[in-house]
Design goal:
The chain is an alpha/beta fold. It folds into 2 domains: 170 residues, Peroxisomal Thiolase, Chain A, domain 1, CATH 3.40.47; 143 residues, Peroxisomal Thiolase, Chain A, domain 1. The chain is built from 10 helices and 13 strands. The chain has a 5-stranded mixed sheet, sandwiched between helices. The protein has a 4-stranded mixed sheet with strand order 8-13-12-11, sandwiched between helices. 53% of the residues are buried. The mean pLDDT is 97.
Length: 323
Protein backbone atom coordinates (compact mmCIF):
# COMPACT_ATOMS: atom_id res chain seq x y z
CA UNK A 1 0.00 0.00 0.00
CA UNK A 2 1.18 3.54 -0.71
CA UNK A 3 2.82 5.37 2.19
CA UNK A 4 3.17 8.98 3.27
CA UNK A 5 5.13 10.70 6.05
CA UNK A 6 3.17 12.40 8.82
CA UNK A 7 4.69 14.79 11.37
CA UNK A 8 4.22 13.52 14.93
CA UNK A 9 6.25 16.06 16.88
CA UNK A 10 8.90 18.76 16.85
CA UNK A 11 11.49 19.96 19.34
CA UNK A 12 14.40 22.29 19.80
CA UNK A 13 17.36 23.11 21.97
CA UNK A 14 19.39 26.28 22.41
CA UNK A 15 22.58 26.62 24.49
CA UNK A 16 22.15 28.63 27.68
CA UNK A 17 24.74 31.28 26.81
CA UNK A 18 23.30 34.28 24.97
CA UNK A 19 25.56 36.69 23.09
CA UNK A 20 23.88 40.05 22.46
CA UNK A 21 24.70 42.64 19.81
CA UNK A 22 25.94 44.97 22.53
CA UNK A 23 28.46 42.36 23.70
CA UNK A 24 29.62 41.78 20.11
CA UNK A 25 30.10 45.53 19.69
CA UNK A 26 32.73 45.38 22.42
CA UNK A 27 34.68 42.78 20.39
CA UNK A 28 34.47 44.13 16.84
CA UNK A 29 33.68 47.41 15.10
CA UNK A 30 29.88 47.12 14.95
CA UNK A 31 26.77 48.25 16.81
CA UNK A 32 23.35 46.94 17.74
CA UNK A 33 21.77 49.46 15.38
CA UNK A 34 23.97 48.37 12.44
CA UNK A 35 23.25 44.66 12.99
CA UNK A 36 19.50 45.04 13.49
CA UNK A 37 19.09 47.36 10.52
CA UNK A 38 20.86 45.00 8.11
CA UNK A 39 19.85 41.59 9.48
CA UNK A 40 17.10 41.85 12.09
CA UNK A 41 19.30 39.93 14.55
CA UNK A 42 19.43 41.04 18.19
CA UNK A 43 21.09 38.05 19.88
CA UNK A 44 22.36 34.52 19.33
CA UNK A 45 23.04 31.43 21.48
CA UNK A 46 26.59 30.07 21.82
CA UNK A 47 27.48 26.52 22.85
CA UNK A 48 29.79 26.09 25.82
CA UNK A 49 33.24 24.56 25.33
CA UNK A 50 32.08 21.13 26.50
CA UNK A 51 28.89 21.21 24.40
CA UNK A 52 29.13 19.51 21.00
CA UNK A 53 26.81 19.34 18.02
CA UNK A 54 25.71 15.84 19.04
CA UNK A 55 24.77 17.13 22.51
CA UNK A 56 22.54 19.84 21.03
CA UNK A 57 21.03 17.31 18.61
CA UNK A 58 20.31 14.81 21.38
CA UNK A 59 18.47 17.39 23.48
CA UNK A 60 16.40 18.56 20.50
CA UNK A 61 15.62 14.93 19.63
CA UNK A 62 14.42 14.16 23.15
CA UNK A 63 12.24 17.28 23.07
CA UNK A 64 10.71 16.19 19.76
CA UNK A 65 10.09 12.65 21.03
CA UNK A 66 8.40 14.04 24.13
CA UNK A 67 6.27 16.31 21.93
CA UNK A 68 5.29 13.28 19.84
CA UNK A 69 4.56 11.13 22.88
CA UNK A 70 7.08 8.51 21.75
CA UNK A 71 10.13 6.79 23.19
CA UNK A 72 13.54 6.15 21.69
CA UNK A 73 12.46 2.57 20.99
CA UNK A 74 10.02 3.90 18.40
CA UNK A 75 12.76 5.29 16.12
CA UNK A 76 14.52 3.30 13.40
CA UNK A 77 16.06 6.10 11.32
CA UNK A 78 18.08 9.16 12.35
CA UNK A 79 19.33 11.76 9.90
CA UNK A 80 21.38 14.66 11.26
CA UNK A 81 21.82 17.62 8.95
CA UNK A 82 24.97 19.47 10.00
CA UNK A 83 27.96 21.33 8.59
CA UNK A 84 29.67 21.26 12.00
CA UNK A 85 29.98 17.59 12.99
CA UNK A 86 31.63 16.51 16.23
CA UNK A 87 34.29 14.60 14.28
CA UNK A 88 35.24 13.72 10.72
CA UNK A 89 33.84 10.29 11.55
CA UNK A 90 31.85 8.59 12.94
CA UNK A 91 28.79 10.53 11.89
CA UNK A 92 27.17 12.85 14.38
CA UNK A 93 23.99 10.83 13.82
CA UNK A 94 25.78 7.72 15.11
CA UNK A 95 26.74 9.60 18.26
CA UNK A 96 23.18 10.89 18.71
CA UNK A 97 21.88 7.35 18.26
CA UNK A 98 24.28 6.13 20.96
CA UNK A 99 23.36 8.97 23.34
CA UNK A 100 19.68 8.19 22.88
CA UNK A 101 20.33 4.52 23.62
CA UNK A 102 18.98 3.39 20.24
CA UNK A 103 20.46 0.20 18.75
CA UNK A 104 17.95 -0.58 16.02
CA UNK A 105 17.70 0.93 12.55
CA UNK A 106 20.27 3.17 10.87
CA UNK A 107 21.68 6.66 11.21
CA UNK A 108 23.76 9.00 9.07
CA UNK A 109 24.67 12.64 8.51
CA UNK A 110 23.66 14.84 5.59
CA UNK A 111 25.52 18.00 4.60
CA UNK A 112 23.77 20.75 2.68
CA UNK A 113 24.63 23.61 5.07
CA UNK A 114 21.64 25.89 5.74
CA UNK A 115 19.39 23.81 3.47
CA UNK A 116 20.39 20.65 5.31
CA UNK A 117 17.15 20.14 7.21
CA UNK A 118 15.08 20.39 4.02
CA UNK A 119 17.37 17.89 2.28
CA UNK A 120 17.22 15.57 5.31
CA UNK A 121 13.43 15.81 5.53
CA UNK A 122 13.02 14.92 1.85
CA UNK A 123 15.48 12.04 2.26
CA UNK A 124 13.71 10.63 5.31
CA UNK A 125 10.35 11.07 3.60
CA UNK A 126 11.53 8.86 0.73
CA UNK A 127 12.96 6.21 3.06
CA UNK A 128 9.65 6.04 4.91
CA UNK A 129 7.53 5.93 1.76
CA UNK A 130 9.57 3.02 0.40
CA UNK A 131 9.25 1.06 3.63
CA UNK A 132 12.91 1.12 4.67
CA UNK A 133 11.98 2.71 8.00
CA UNK A 134 8.86 3.29 10.07
CA UNK A 135 9.66 6.37 12.16
CA UNK A 136 12.45 8.87 11.66
CA UNK A 137 14.15 11.56 13.70
CA UNK A 138 15.15 14.36 11.33
CA UNK A 139 17.54 16.74 13.08
CA UNK A 140 19.27 19.98 12.14
CA UNK A 141 22.10 20.78 14.55
CA UNK A 142 24.99 23.24 14.38
CA UNK A 143 27.80 24.76 16.41
CA UNK A 144 28.71 27.46 13.91
CA UNK A 145 30.51 29.39 16.65
CA UNK A 146 33.37 26.91 16.11
CA UNK A 147 33.95 28.01 12.49
CA UNK A 148 33.29 31.73 12.83
CA UNK A 149 36.13 34.24 12.47
CA UNK A 150 35.31 36.40 15.46
CA UNK A 151 37.40 39.24 14.02
CA UNK A 152 35.27 39.45 10.87
CA UNK A 153 32.38 41.76 11.69
CA UNK A 154 30.56 40.92 8.45
CA UNK A 155 30.04 37.26 9.43
CA UNK A 156 30.45 36.91 13.21
CA UNK A 157 27.24 38.86 13.83
CA UNK A 158 25.12 36.54 11.70
CA UNK A 159 25.38 33.08 13.22
CA UNK A 160 24.47 31.16 16.35
CA UNK A 161 24.29 27.61 17.69
CA UNK A 162 21.28 25.38 18.20
CA UNK A 163 19.39 22.27 17.17
CA UNK A 164 15.89 21.44 16.01
CA UNK A 165 14.24 18.07 15.42
CA UNK A 166 11.17 16.52 13.87
CA UNK A 167 9.64 13.06 14.24
CA UNK A 168 7.91 11.70 11.15
CA UNK A 169 6.08 8.40 10.73
CA UNK A 170 5.22 6.30 7.69
CA UNK A 171 1.46 5.78 7.44
CA UNK A 172 -0.91 4.50 4.79
CA UNK A 173 -2.17 7.23 2.49
CA UNK A 174 -5.72 6.45 3.63
CA UNK A 175 -4.88 7.46 7.22
CA UNK A 176 -4.78 10.95 8.79
CA UNK A 177 -6.71 12.58 5.93
CA UNK A 178 -4.43 14.76 3.85
CA UNK A 179 -1.88 15.28 6.66
CA UNK A 180 1.79 14.68 5.87
CA UNK A 181 4.68 15.81 3.69
CA UNK A 182 2.95 16.75 0.44
CA UNK A 183 5.91 17.62 -1.78
CA UNK A 184 9.54 18.77 -1.72
CA UNK A 185 11.85 20.50 -4.17
CA UNK A 186 15.66 20.52 -3.89
CA UNK A 187 18.34 22.29 -5.91
CA UNK A 188 22.14 22.63 -5.97
CA UNK A 189 24.39 24.79 -8.13
CA UNK A 190 28.07 24.30 -7.31
CA UNK A 191 29.16 27.19 -9.52
CA UNK A 192 28.42 29.50 -6.58
CA UNK A 193 30.48 27.72 -3.92
CA UNK A 194 33.02 30.54 -3.50
CA UNK A 195 30.28 32.92 -2.42
CA UNK A 196 29.72 31.03 0.86
CA UNK A 197 32.22 28.47 2.11
CA UNK A 198 34.67 27.44 4.84
CA UNK A 199 38.35 27.95 3.95
CA UNK A 200 39.52 24.64 5.39
CA UNK A 201 38.91 20.93 5.28
CA UNK A 202 40.39 17.47 5.79
CA UNK A 203 41.42 16.87 2.17
CA UNK A 204 42.36 20.43 1.23
CA UNK A 205 44.13 22.07 4.18
CA UNK A 206 43.98 19.62 7.07
CA UNK A 207 42.42 22.37 9.17
CA UNK A 208 38.90 23.31 10.26
CA UNK A 209 38.97 26.76 8.64
CA UNK A 210 36.61 29.69 8.99
CA UNK A 211 33.38 30.67 7.30
CA UNK A 212 33.79 33.12 4.42
CA UNK A 213 30.94 34.85 2.66
CA UNK A 214 30.30 37.34 -0.10
CA UNK A 215 27.26 38.80 1.59
CA UNK A 216 25.94 40.90 -1.28
CA UNK A 217 26.22 37.99 -3.72
CA UNK A 218 24.36 35.65 -1.38
CA UNK A 219 21.64 38.24 -0.83
CA UNK A 220 21.36 38.83 -4.59
CA UNK A 221 20.61 35.16 -5.28
CA UNK A 222 18.61 34.25 -2.17
CA UNK A 223 15.13 35.59 -2.91
CA UNK A 224 15.09 34.27 -6.48
CA UNK A 225 16.24 30.82 -5.42
CA UNK A 226 13.64 30.65 -2.66
CA UNK A 227 10.94 31.67 -5.12
CA UNK A 228 12.14 28.96 -7.52
CA UNK A 229 11.67 25.98 -5.17
CA UNK A 230 8.54 27.25 -3.44
CA UNK A 231 6.84 27.80 -6.80
CA UNK A 232 7.94 24.31 -7.87
CA UNK A 233 6.26 22.82 -4.80
CA UNK A 234 3.11 24.86 -5.49
CA UNK A 235 3.10 23.52 -9.06
CA UNK A 236 3.45 19.93 -7.79
CA UNK A 237 0.61 20.27 -5.28
CA UNK A 238 -1.77 22.77 -6.88
CA UNK A 239 -1.63 25.13 -3.91
CA UNK A 240 -0.79 28.84 -3.92
CA UNK A 241 0.58 31.40 -1.47
CA UNK A 242 -2.94 32.36 -0.37
CA UNK A 243 -3.59 28.75 0.69
CA UNK A 244 -0.77 28.70 3.25
CA UNK A 245 -1.47 28.97 6.94
CA UNK A 246 2.23 29.40 7.75
CA UNK A 247 5.47 30.14 5.94
CA UNK A 248 8.55 28.98 7.87
CA UNK A 249 11.66 30.25 6.07
CA UNK A 250 15.34 29.79 6.81
CA UNK A 251 16.24 32.34 9.48
CA UNK A 252 19.26 34.03 7.90
CA UNK A 253 18.31 37.64 7.41
CA UNK A 254 15.07 39.53 8.04
CA UNK A 255 15.40 41.41 4.76
CA UNK A 256 15.64 38.14 2.81
CA UNK A 257 12.64 36.74 4.69
CA UNK A 258 10.61 39.89 3.95
CA UNK A 259 11.69 39.90 0.29
CA UNK A 260 10.77 36.26 -0.23
CA UNK A 261 7.41 36.65 1.46
CA UNK A 262 6.59 39.69 -0.66
CA UNK A 263 7.59 38.00 -3.93
CA UNK A 264 5.55 34.91 -3.04
CA UNK A 265 2.60 37.12 -2.00
CA UNK A 266 2.45 35.62 1.48
CA UNK A 267 0.91 37.86 4.13
CA UNK A 268 3.48 39.00 6.76
CA UNK A 269 1.30 37.69 9.60
CA UNK A 270 1.70 34.16 8.19
CA UNK A 271 5.52 34.28 8.33
CA UNK A 272 7.31 32.70 11.32
CA UNK A 273 10.35 34.79 12.31
CA UNK A 274 12.91 33.79 14.93
CA UNK A 275 16.06 35.30 13.39
CA UNK A 276 15.94 38.16 15.90
CA UNK A 277 16.46 35.82 18.88
CA UNK A 278 18.29 32.85 17.30
CA UNK A 279 20.33 34.45 14.47
CA UNK A 280 21.28 32.07 11.64
CA UNK A 281 21.65 28.56 13.06
CA UNK A 282 22.14 27.04 9.60
CA UNK A 283 20.52 23.58 9.34
CA UNK A 284 18.88 24.08 12.75
CA UNK A 285 17.03 27.28 11.84
CA UNK A 286 13.92 25.84 10.17
CA UNK A 287 13.20 23.10 12.75
CA UNK A 288 13.88 25.54 15.60
CA UNK A 289 11.39 28.00 14.13
CA UNK A 290 8.91 25.16 13.66
CA UNK A 291 9.31 24.11 17.28
CA UNK A 292 8.72 27.67 18.51
CA UNK A 293 5.61 28.23 16.38
CA UNK A 294 4.16 24.80 17.14
CA UNK A 295 4.65 25.02 20.89
CA UNK A 296 3.25 28.54 21.19
CA UNK A 297 0.08 27.38 19.44
CA UNK A 298 0.45 29.16 16.11
CA UNK A 299 0.93 26.02 14.00
CA UNK A 300 -1.95 23.63 14.61
CA UNK A 301 -2.96 20.24 13.26
CA UNK A 302 -4.41 20.61 9.77
CA UNK A 303 -2.46 23.77 8.95
CA UNK A 304 -0.70 24.04 5.59
CA UNK A 305 2.95 24.89 6.27
CA UNK A 306 5.65 25.78 3.73
CA UNK A 307 9.31 25.36 4.71
CA UNK A 308 12.24 26.75 2.73
CA UNK A 309 15.98 27.31 3.03
CA UNK A 310 19.00 28.37 1.01
CA UNK A 311 22.66 27.87 1.90
CA UNK A 312 26.23 27.29 0.84
CA UNK A 313 26.85 25.19 -2.23
CA UNK A 314 24.61 26.90 -3.30
CA UNK A 315 21.85 24.60 -2.09
CA UNK A 316 18.19 25.48 -1.73
CA UNK A 317 14.97 23.64 -1.06
CA UNK A 318 11.34 23.74 0.03
CA UNK A 319 8.80 21.34 1.51
CA UNK A 320 5.05 21.65 1.93
CA UNK A 321 3.47 19.90 4.92
CA UNK A 322 -0.12 19.45 6.02
CA UNK A 323 0.48 19.55 9.78
Amino acid sequence: MNKKSVVLGVGGYLPKKILTNEELARRVDTSDEWIVQRTGIRQRHIASEDEFTSDLAEKAARDALNNAGLSTNDIDLIIVATATPDMTFPSTASLVQQKLGITQGFAFDLQAVCSGFLFALATADNYLKTGMAKRALVIGAETFSRIIDWNDRTTCVLFGDGAGAMVIEATDVSEHGDRGVLASSLRTDGRHWKKLYVDGGVSSTGTIGHLRMQGREVFKHAVGMIFDVVEDVFEKTGFHGDDLDWFVPHQANKRIIDGAGKKLKIAPQKVVVTVDIHANTSAASVPLALAVASKDGRIKQGDLVMLEAMGGGFTWGASLIRW
